[in-house]
Amino acid sequence: MLKWLRLVFVFVPYLLWQYLFKIVPMSRNMNKYTLQQRWDELRKLLIRLYKVLRIDIKARNWGHLQNNRQQYIIVNHFSFLDPVTMIVLNKKPLIFVAKEETFDMIVVGRCLRLIDGIGLKRGDLRAELNSMKLVSKAIDNGLTVCIFPEGTRNTSFNGELLEFKAGAFNIAMKKQLEIVSVCLIGTQFPLQLNTNWKKFPVTIDVPALYEASDYENLTTIEFSNLVRETMQASVNHIREVQIKRQRPYIKKRDLKLITT
After folding, report:
1. Residue 131, C-beta contacts closer than 8 angstroms, at least 6 positions apart
2. Which H helix or E strand runs over 60?
């Protein structure tokens, strides 16, 4: 209950103000602002959200992510808060590739467009090709792209990562980009209706950084499987860390959340 009271009375008024008087005007006149300016404005809003939710992030090997050079970032997907976490932790803009329907959500869609997010319509070859052209253009402009290769959210805390879409790696491999894998867990709990913890730990690991020489002799499927195996081992490890970190806060009735 206290979590939702904080959200309603502390964050929502701030959200409405920022959205109506900052996000909306900037999104209507995007040419007047740099991507960095738009990113900074959205990031400020989301940092406030994390403080209100009392999300406590612990990141390992975060130094693999570099703000001073271009990378291609692969992230596992548990929650709506996964991309939010990436925004909160990165001062440098990331170009997110998200499902087309995400852009139909009023607030979320506008925020994604504000930071030049790219929609991906599965099953429509022409639309997918157009999306990949936009990704290619972003890369050619020196931007860092962030993508979730599972394609949809994984609803199981203890389950394995979903199958990776090998196509998510294709353009990065063709352009010989530095590819970084990011694993996170714990983001699925803060916005659940029945979780009212004093603090919400989120645990992150950056298990691997791949240079072009690491995948030059591999197909996209082979490399996709390699990355998934490495990320699965990382998720297995940080899951145990996450359980220990959230033990002081979790309620007995919530134990089922970490047993499925």
Report:
1. 97, 118, 119, 120, 121
2. strand 55-60
55-60 and 200-210 strand pairing? parallel
Residue 256 CB-density burial (10 A; 0-12 exposed, 13-18 middle, 19+ buried) = exposed
> Could you tell me if 95 and 112 are in contact, meaning their C-beta atoms sit under 8 angstroms apart?
no
Span 137-162, pLDDT tens digits = 999 999 999 999 999 999 999 999 99
Residue 98 exposure: Cα atoms within 13 Å on the Cβ side = 24
CATH 3.40.1130.10 applies to domain 55-258: yes
Q: pTM surpassing 0.90?
A: yes
Which tens digit of pLDDT belongs to each residue from 18-60? 999 999 999 999 999 999 999 999 999 999 999 999 999 999 9
> In Å, what is the CA distance from 117 to each residue of 110, 151, 195, 238, 257?
10, 15, 30, 28, 31
Tokens 């406590």 locate to 56
